[in-house]
Design brief:
CATH topology of the largest domain in chain A: Aminopeptidase
Number of domains of chain A: 2
CATH architecture of the largest domain in chain A: 3-Layer(aba) Sandwich
Radius of gyration of chain A: 24 Å
Strand content of chain A: 15-25%
Oligomer: homodimer
CATH class of the largest domain in chain A: Alpha Beta
Distance between the termini of chain A: 31 Å
Largest sheet of chain A: 8 strands, mixed
Structural class of chain A: alpha/beta
Chain lengths: 461, 461
């Protein structure tokens, strides 16, 4: 049915086009056919993701996994004969979780100590070996914390504001909750608290904690911060509602080591007419140290490689340079993205577009355009083509963290928009493994990116 | 981003509407808000599906599971206080797989007998206890079978045409392969073969066989028919390519018993102005006897109940009757759908629309319209509303098997169109269980159906 409607759209489009446009239209339709045949028929995105996640495993910046990921993806692009492949070195932070992450609740009202499931938030300081211990205060907002500021002195703050499930887009639910994780330790330290437990950033109720970045301020003490599983957050909350006084002992062995050298991995099909006009298609190579970062963002990396691979297999010689960039360190510093935008290698290059896939390897729905309304309008002229791939939902929106520094310099940004209902079930947790990725959905994302790269390369923006 | 674009669309729509239309538009927007808040916030579709699949389990027509499913869904609708709930009895076939389904390959070229993974196709006759045994001939098409007709006498035919993965829509891949399952035994018997093995109807390569309906003809012998896992189909094929002569012993204990009485389960919100104008929203209650039919079609059943439930919770008193129908026996006879269309209960009723969800409980993308182009056009006037639910892809297409008999009588049919990349990974196999269903995606399908029911009820078609 979608086929027929797309056919009607594109046939109608043919009728109103001039002959030059007609030629372009025929080329575009034939490219879409080729992308579907080659991509869905014998695409490599899923195999690449299997290779990346099995060889590198989790790959937090500065880890051995991240180092392997650089080598593996460099080799993937070399092996596929891209016009050039190189590394751009960047210094990255190195944080380690260590062996211990443990929280135990005690209360006169409980028959025995109750272990709850936690994991250190990324960047957290560790605790002394015997842990930090204090009474628990539960809050849902920073305002609520302020009203209880006096009480908070010496306590452990449980931030327990859940995802609002009523948003259609789960990224809106995430945005509405994530300041508890990112700013919670700062706000808690400001009122004299000694540690924070943060409800995991997910709409799922289960016993798996979700890590993620947290921040400190030099103005207040750096206190330990851990995510608690949604199931245990609900349990603790129910005890507090029942009037129990709860204490928690939190033990974390996390620590931050000296920065280490890592790299962005870059490969490209060089433009035949305008080699210095660059279209970046990107993912980030680092992941958290839970799961294997299959959706976040192994998917985006292999899709970028596969987008170039598909165009190459189809014999496309792009007018402008199409460049796959696997950025390092999106999760805890964005050093790769920041450096790429200002590196000496950028001299003489003009970045005309930057595309990122960092919302999981799910079925694509369309493209979010991170630029002014002129750009949205210009991309919308291709809407019927993307509709042929079931990805015709094009509108303003965010692109991606890594490429946001290019966007800040005036490069239009594009985000691959996907079905995101399942994303935060897995995100930053042991659940984010390749068995949650569907090979067709992943490949189709690469196909959409390949088409967008091609259109920008041939027609400009 | 999709929010913003939807907001722009609906704001623009407001500006060009007359005041009556404006009122309707405001009501519709507020209904969409209410559906999202109530559905995504505290929807019941997933709980209903858990209840159905855990209490009834697999529910092939005539089985105890099917009987429980009738009771459970009847009670679900009674408990929710729909305006009326009743059963419409129907006689259904009763086929049983029995305990034995076993295939063993032997060859002078193999060190020992090789068991392969099979399951009886639905409706197959059984074999003698010692099995049927013959050499294997592999074909991919009926044409190829015809060219080898002489050779086929006394042999076992392996139909091994895989899914064509290059279709964007997996239903197209299924359509291109399924005649091997549905007609394979007839065509094989016509050339004197003694049994058939059919490559499982899935694009996945694994060791789980997928059952499904097969047919016999009275003109030729009824020979046993089994699905073989894709992994073992590939293995057998590779041995044949290597030049091995293979025999197979196939043992099936399947049998067909006498028809038994079952029922369609019907509940409704009765129309306030036109009670005899009916909008059916449907799924089928029976499933295959592998897995628990969570996607096929437990999802469609609970979505139909939930669609009414949501409208009732939001205080909607529909002008026309909105009726949830759980049809019995879609999988192997469609007796429920056929009988519903002609039953005495239909007297005085006018069916103005029939909606079915039978493509799995995945994220909805839109609606396929099974009717003439006028109907497509009329539904398309609501496209901006469905786009607010990320389900704006509206075009001509099939609706559903159960409601096709109403469509044949002139009722416009509508199919809930969903992301279908994963569907045939699970379909008709042990994989089709509730852990493959995402609660938000399932609920959103119910929300889309509720909106479509409401719009047709208030505005007609």
């Amino acid at each position: 049915m979608s086929h027929r409607s797309a056919w009607i759209t594109s046939t109608f489009a043919l009728l109103v086009l001039s002959s030059g446009q007609l030629f372009a239209q025929i080329q575009q339709d034939s490219l879409i056919g080729g992308l579907l045949k080659t991509g869905l028929g014998k695409g490599e995105a899923f195999e690449l993701l299997e290779e990346l996640t099995s060889k590198a495993g989790p790959r937090l910046s500065g880890s051995r996994g991240a180092e392997i990921a650089v080598e593996v993806t460099f080799k993937m692009m070399m092996d596929r004969g891209f016009d050039s492949t190189h590394l751009e070195h960047v210094m990255v932070p190195r944080w380690e979780r260590g062996e211990v992450e443990k929280a135990t609740i005690t209360s006169a009202g409980l028959p025995k100590p109750l272990p709850v499931t936690v994991c250190a938030l990324g960047g957290s300081v560790g605790t002394p070996a015997e842990g930090v211990e204090g009474s628990i205060i539960e809050v849902r907002t920073f305002d609520e914390l302020q009203t209880r500021a006096k009480e908070a002195q010496g306590k452990v703050i449980l931030y327990n504001r859940p995802f609002d499930p009523t948003h259609l887009n789960t990224f809106a639910s995430y945005s509405g909750a994530v300041n508890q994780r990112s700013q919670g330790a700062i706000e808690a330290a400001r009122v004299g608290a000694i540690a924070v437990l943060v409800r995991s950033m997910t709409g799922m109720i289960d016993d798996v904690p979700h890590t993620g970045a947290m921040n400190y301020s030099d103005e207040v003490p750096k206190i330990p911060a851990a995510a608690i599983s949604t199931q245990d957050a609900d349990l603790v909350s129910s005890y507090l509602r029942d009037g129990l006084d709860l204490s928690v002992n939190l033990q974390l062995s996390a620590k931050t080591l000296a920065d280490v050298q890592s790299a962005n991995v870059v490969g490209q099909l060089t433009g035949s007419l305008f080699p210095n006009e660059i279209i970046v298609v990107a993912g980030h190579l680092d992941s958290w140290d839970k799961g294997t970062g299959a959706h976040d963002d192994g998917a985006g990396c292999v899709q970028a490689i596969e987008a170039l691979n598909l165009l190459k297999k189809l014999g496309v010689k792009p007018k402008r340079t199409i460049r796959a960039v696997m950025f390092m360190n999106e999760e805890n510093g964005v050093r790769g993205g920041k450096q790429y935008a200002v590196a000496p290698e950028r001299k003489g290059e003009k970045h005309i577009a930057a595309i990122e896939s960092d919302r999981g390897g799910f079925a694509p729905r369309g493209i979010t355009v991170h630029g002014d309304s002129t750009v949205v309008g210009r991309v919308n002229r291709w809407q019927p083509l993307f509709a042929q791939l079931n990805a015709g939902q094009i509108g303003p929106g965010y692109s991606g963290v890594d490429i946001s520094h290019l966007v800040d310099q005036g490069t239009p940004g594009f985000g691959l928009d996907v079905e995101n209902h399942r994303y935060f079930d897995y995100h930053h947790s042991d659940h984010d493994t390749i068995d949650k990725v569907n090979a067709r959905e992943l490949e189709l994302g690469a196909i959409v990116e390949a088409l967008l790269c091609y259109l920008i390369s041939e027609e400009g923006l």
